[in-house]
Write a structure and sequence with these properties.
Shape of chain B: globular
Radius of gyration of chain A: 21 Å
Largest sheet of chain A: 8 strands, mixed
Number of helices of chain B: 14
Structural class of chain B: alpha/beta
Distance between the termini of chain A: 47 Å
Structural class of chain A: alpha/beta
Helix content of chain A: 25-40%
Helix content of chain B: 25-40%
Number of strands of chain A: 12
Order of helices and strands of chain B: EEEHEEHEHHHHHEHEHEEHHHEEHH
Distance between the termini of chain B: 56 Å
Number of helices of chain A: 12
Radius of gyration of chain B: 21 Å
Largest sheet of chain B: 8 strands, mixed
Oligomer: heterodimer
Chain lengths: 337, 342
């Protein structure tokens, strides 16, 4: 494994607020969806960073910001020590040959009129790789992701199953010879038996191609299986961040605890009898003041409604959580029902 | 009514559903038989294309009439549904048999308030006045624990959050005192912290009202959380059924074993997942052999030559495996399939 001390990716102050409202003059937005709000983290070379959270927590927006499918409002992203978009850094185009993404909807992300061989070779060809070489690479990658080139070479996306299409998407991402792969709910649409096949494939490819993964999912079990470190997001902010085993065994943030105990038990004798928290996640248009979780938190105190907690270490040096209880600013009173 | 306490509230026998269009034919359900007892929760577990949702919709006859060939029998409380005339079907749907859909945002009509939609159903089925129907709607929103129900009654579906919409959907389904509640992936579209709330609510209401419930899901965790009995579907057939805890602990069909062992749980970390190789069957022709045989580690010649019969194993258990005697005596739980196959 790599022992380099420089992180592969450093993200600081990343922010995206989407304007909504008036589409008529005076063209002034009436409100903003605070999708991603001041996020800082690093991705180590060779690791798999898991990102979990419920719908609307900003995890997909964050992925799109990283690969610049959306322009961030603020913040900087440093890849291998080079700032993206800066004059002394690297351009967005150069970044995209090092960072690739696989999306959830395997069908929508392939061109329906293009045979898969062409789809896989498309990126390298447009990047200046000679066509013949790109085609050879395409055939080679097809075999590596477990699709027999003699059978699949000239097929179109609609002729493949969901699992096969997702293999094509992975091959297409790898054709650019990236170092970092962002997997945004890449296995969520697959059936369980096929999901296991694709997860095994991702594990193999990671060591074969020396890849680093950012693995985004709403499925806590899958993230626990594949990730080295995990980032828990809530309403556009990081609630907790740390090594996967520590976060799952010893969650610090009340939200992480609720999320973990909302998982089905998988044991008919130990069924859940009580929901850990009530209500739905609030709307990110007008997120709650102070700590954004305070509306659903069983330990809420007056301070939580006024001041947003910072990410501080809790448990161990690598394990961060944004909660006044963890920082010691407040003391636990009692666990309200 | 000729109700006896022990007679099942729903009885399905040899159900076959074929969709025929000009381009192709799909044999979606191929001989499904099961009973649902009063006050029982049956989980139907299966992957996409296994025929689980089609089976559920057939019970309400919700499948497109002109493109569907349906055979077999379905009886609700002793009354035949397959030959039921349209006017009786209308009172059955939402009356004795109610359904909850996966996506509450599209199941509700966006241009009427939730209160109007529930009241309308109550007026049509019960023939009561608008004001008493509205009162009933209010009581129902309280029943499903929607906070400040009186205000929510005048909300349009888009003004509610996903979890609240699904609660309102449950209220609508319960509005006419059904005997059977059918739920098609009721929590799949919901977030984890909301899913558990809705599951617990359904469980509680089912017990209070003594409903027979069928819950269709692809998620083993959801099935385990709520079911009394489980039926596992593959290729349009029930391949295994029985009391939930027994099936989960000691699956007696290779597909159930594979499904359970490929489901990721806490202990999987650091181990290679035991995936089921291959892909689900193409259902363009009716099965002539075991539909799982091409992916099965125990497959032998007999599996490829005939459709296996249902093998009754005692204690309410059934497995549709021709080679159950060859391997079925060995107790096998989660995670053992891979070692066996290796």
């Amino acid at each position: 494994m790599h022992a380099s001390s420089q992180p592969m990716l450093t993200v600081s102050g990343l922010r995206k607020h989407f304007p909504i409202g008036s589409s008529f003059p005076p063209w002034r937005p009436s409100a903003y969806v605070r999708a991603v709000d001041d996020i800082n983290f690093t991705v180590k070379t060779g690791e798999t960073l898991g990102v979990v959270g419920e719908s609307g927590c900003g995890k997909s927006t964050m992925a799109r910001l990283l690969i610049r499918l959306i322009e961030p409002d603020d913040g900087e992203i440093i890849l291998d020590g080079l700032k993206i978009g800066a004059s002394d850094g690297i351009s967005v185009r150069e970044m995209r040959s090092k960072v690739q993404m696989v999306f959830q909807d395997s069908y929508a992300s392939l061109n329906p009129r293009m045979p898969i061989e062409e789809s896989i070779a498309f990126g390298p060809v447009s990047d200046g790789v000679p066509r013949r070489e790109a085609m050879e690479r395409s055939i080679d990658l097809m075999a590596r992701v477990g699709l027999d080139p003699t059978l699949f070479l000239h097929r179109y996306p609609h002729e493949l199953s969901g699992g096969q299409r997702q293999r094509v998407n992975i091959a297409r991402a790898l054709a650019m010879q990236p170092r970092l792969l962002i997997l945004d709910e890449a296995v969520s649409a697959l059936d369980k038996s096929v999901e296991a096949q694709v997860l095994n494939l991702l594990t193999d490819l990671k060591s074969e191609f020396d890849l680093t993964y950012i693995f985004i999912s709403h499925d806590l079990n899958v993230v626990r299986y594949i990730a080295d470190r995990v980032m828990v997001m809530y309403l556009g902010e990081i609630a907790e961040f740390g090594p996967v085993q520590e976060v799952y065994d010893n969650p610090q943030h009340p939200y992480t605890r609720a999320l973990l105990s909302a998982q089905p038990s998988m044991d008919p004798d130990r069924r859940r009898t009580e929901a850990p928290i009530s209500g739905d996640p609030p709307n990110p248009i007008n997120p709650p003041s102070g700590c954004r979780f305070h509306t659903r938190c069983p330990f809420v105190q007056p301070l939580c409604k006024e001041h947003a907690p910072l990410l501080v270490t809790g448990g161990s040096a690598e394990h961060l959580a944004a909660c006044h209880l963890v920082s010691g600013a407040i003391q636990p009173r009692r666990a309200a029902a | 009514m000729t109700e006896t306490a022990n007679a099942p509230v729903l009885s399905v026998r040899d159900l076959e559903v074929t969709f025929v269009t000009r381009e192709r034919t799909v044999h979606a359900v191929n001989g499904v038989s099961f009973d649902l007892n009063r006050g029982e929760v049956l989980s139907i577990l299966g992957e996409s294309g296994s025929g689980k949702s089609v089976t559920l919709r057939a019970i309400q006859r919700l499948l497109p009439v002109r493109r569907t060939r349906l055979s077999g029998s379905i009886h609700v409380d002793g009354e035949d549904v397959v030959g039921m005339p349209p006017h009786r079907l209308r009172s059955l749907r939402g009356g004795e048999v109610a359904m909850i859909f996966q996506e509450p945002a599209t199941a509700f009509d966006p241009v009427y308030t939730v209160g109007q939609q529930i009241s309308e159903a109550v007026m049509k089925h019960k023939g009561v006045s608008l004001s008493s129907a509205r009162q009933r709607a209010l009581d129902l929103l309280d029943l499903v624990r929607i906070p400040s129900a009186a205000r929510r009654l005048d909300n349009y579906p888009h003004e509610m959050s996903g979890g609240m919409r699904q609660r309102a959907m449950i209220a609508l389904a319960l509005s006419c005192d059904p005997k059977i509640l059918l739920a098609d992936e009721p929590t799949t579209a919901l977030d984890a912290t909301v899913q558990i709330q809705v599951l617990l609510l359904m469980q509680q209401l089912q017990r209070e009202l003594g409903l027979g419930v069928i819950i269709v899901t692809h998620d083993v965790g959801v099935a385990i959380e709520i079911g009394d009995r489980i039926a596992v579907m593959y290729g349009g057939q029930i391949v295994e059924s029985g009391p939930l805890a027994d099936v989960v602990r000691d699956p007696k069909h290779p597909y159930t074993q594979g499904l359970l062992s490929s489901t990721i749980h806490a202990a999987s970390r650091g181990r290679r997942l035991t995936a089921i190789p291959g892909t689900p069957p193409n259902l363009s022709s009716p099965p002539v052999s075991c539909t799982f045989a091409p992916r099965c580690p125990y497959a032998a010649e007999v599996c490829h030559s005939a459709v296996p019969d249902e093998v009754l194993l005692g204690a309410g258990r059934m497995s549709r495996c021709a080679r159950i005697d060859a391997w079925g005596n060995k107790a096998m739980g989660i995670g053992s399939l891979g070692e066996e196959a290796a």
